[in-house]
Amino acid sequence: SWLRKQRWVGVVGDFLPLAIMVLLVLHASTSSALARGGLPVPEAAGVFLTLIVQWFVKKPLLSIFAGTAVYVILVNSLFA
């Protein structure tokens, strides 16, 4: 109970999920680009579209689906 009352625990609790997601996206994007042997253009396009759709539509499932679809289409057609 002492730990829950500490202010910094609340700050870390608010910041940590976003920081973990950003690190996971960066790691996955760079790893797949390095495995493919090119620049992370499809990864960046997918993340960018996901952010734009989420910003305007505010539907997480739709934005994740749109970003994933763009990534898969780009990787399989243009960067194959």
What does this structure look like?
By secondary structure, this protein is mainly alpha-helical. The protein has one domain. Helices cover 82% and strands 0% of the residues. The mean pLDDT is 87.
Short summary of the structure?
With 80 residues, the protein is mainly α. The protein has helices spanning 7-36, 41-57, 60-78.
- The secondary structure category is mainly alpha
Low-confidence stretches: none
Assembly type of the chains comes to single chain
Tally of distinct domains: 1
Distance between the termini: 54 Å
Shape: elongated
Order of helices and strands: HHH
Task: Give the SSE layout.
Layout: H1 7-36, H2 41-57, H3 60-78
Question: What attributes does this structure have?
Answer:
3 helices; 82% helix; elongated
